[in-house]
């Protein structure tokens, strides 16, 4: 049963990538990069934020409202003060759903309720505005949910590995992981060079930041190394909302 369910998830994700696309062509005028954090563990800000500040970089924090002020499975998540601080520092607050549930497990009414609740929760931290960037919880996506979020956000980001070059799908952008479970400096450097020479869009993602990170997080040293390599390549790093017009040449 577990294998059959895993196969179904993989097939649904493949169909979403192949059949539903919000296509756009990157201008190719200059390379650009973004650094993003999913779920928003508190240390992504308290330990990750200072690393970004040392590099003069602003990131995108994909925020699930239901995690605010909570500790879940021994992981401490952000609080309202963290959101206020990072917004004041110019970082982007993105949407990661209210309940952080795999989107394909929610019906249409539940998707709308979840998205609306998270949007209303984030409004005070966005000066009454709405989040422009979305990331699929767990990277789980289906044709139905991709259409839903693709129509509501400027960009939607998955966890499919790769960089974004030429014609891209704004409803499921590719990423390069900085997670400890798949950390590979050679691959990261190769992707930086590919983006530099193709004038594409490199989107890093991770979760927690700690000296002892989870399998899905990074150490401050890993984050520092990756940002340093992008800086050495003279690639500008911008939050998703600001990187998009640069990538499109607007």
Named CATH topology: TIM Barrel
CATH superfamily: Glycoside hydrolase/deacetylase
**Mean of all residue-level pLDDT scores:** 94
CATH architecture: Alpha-Beta Barrel
Helix percent reads 25-40%
Give the total of domains.
1
Would you report the number of β strands? 12
Q: Strand count, sense and closure of the main sheet?
A: 8 strands, parallel
Tally of helical segments: 9
Radius of gyration: 17 Å
Tell me the span between the first and last alpha carbons. Answer: 48 Å
CATH class: Alpha Beta
Estimated share of beta-strand residues: 15-25%
What class would the helix/strand composition place it in? alpha/beta
Which blocks of ≥5 consecutive residues have pLDDT under 50? none
Order of helices and strands: HEEHHEEEHEHEHEEEHEHEH
Walk me through the structure.
- Strands 2, 3, 6, 7, 8, 10, 11 and 12 form an eight-stranded parallel β-sheet that branches.
- This protein is of the alpha/beta class and 250 residues long.
- The radius of gyration is 17 Å and the shape is globular.
- It has nine helices and twelve strands.
- It has a single domain (2-248), classed as TIM Barrel (Alpha-Beta Barrel).
Describe this protein with a few key phrases:
TIM Barrel; 12 strands
In brief:
By secondary structure, the chain is an alpha/beta fold.
Task: Present the secondary structure layout.
Blueprint: H1 2-19, E1 23-25, E2 32-37, H2 43-46, H3 48-54, E3 60-63, E4 71-72, E5 75-76, H4 80-88, E6 92-95, H5 108-122, E7 133-135, H6 143-150, E8 155-161, E9 167-169, E10 173-177, H7 185-198, E11 201-206, H8 220-232, E12 236-237, H9 240-248
Parallel strand pairs: 2-3, 2-11, 2-12, 3-6, 7-8, 8-10, 10-11
Antiparallel strand pairs: 1-9, 4-5
């Amino acid at each position: 049963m577990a294998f059959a369910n895993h196969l179904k998830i993989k097939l649904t994700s493949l169909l979403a990538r192949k059949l539903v696309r919000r296509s756009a062509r990157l201008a190719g005028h200059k390379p650009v990069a973004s650094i993003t954090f999913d779920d928003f563990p508190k240390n992504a800000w308290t330990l990750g934020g200072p690393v970004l500040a040392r590099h003069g970089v602003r990131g995108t924090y994909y925020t699930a409202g239901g995690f605010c002020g909570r500790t879940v499975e021994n992981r401490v998540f952000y609080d309202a003060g963290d959101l206020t601080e990072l917004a004041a520092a110019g970082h982007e607050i993105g949407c990661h759903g209210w309940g952080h549930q795999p989107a394909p497990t929610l019906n249409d009414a539940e998707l709308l309720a979840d998205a609306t609740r998270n949007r209303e929760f984030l409004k005070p931290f966005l000066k009454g505005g709405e989040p422009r960037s979305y990331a699929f919880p767990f990277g789980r996506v289906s044709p139905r949910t991709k259409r839903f979020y693709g129509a509501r956000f400027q960009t939607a980001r998955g966890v499919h590995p790769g960089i974004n070059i030429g014609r891209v799908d704004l409803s499921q952008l590719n990423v390069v992981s900085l997670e400890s479970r798949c950390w590979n400096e050679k691959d990261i450097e190769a992707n930086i060079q590919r983006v530099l020479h193709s004038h594409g869009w490199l989107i890093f993602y991770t979760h927690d930041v700690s000296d002892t990170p989870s399998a899905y997080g990074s150490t401050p040293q890993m984050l520092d190394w990756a940002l340093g390599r992008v800086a050495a390549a003279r690639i500008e790093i911008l939050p998703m909302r600001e990187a998009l017009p640069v990538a499109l040449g607007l």
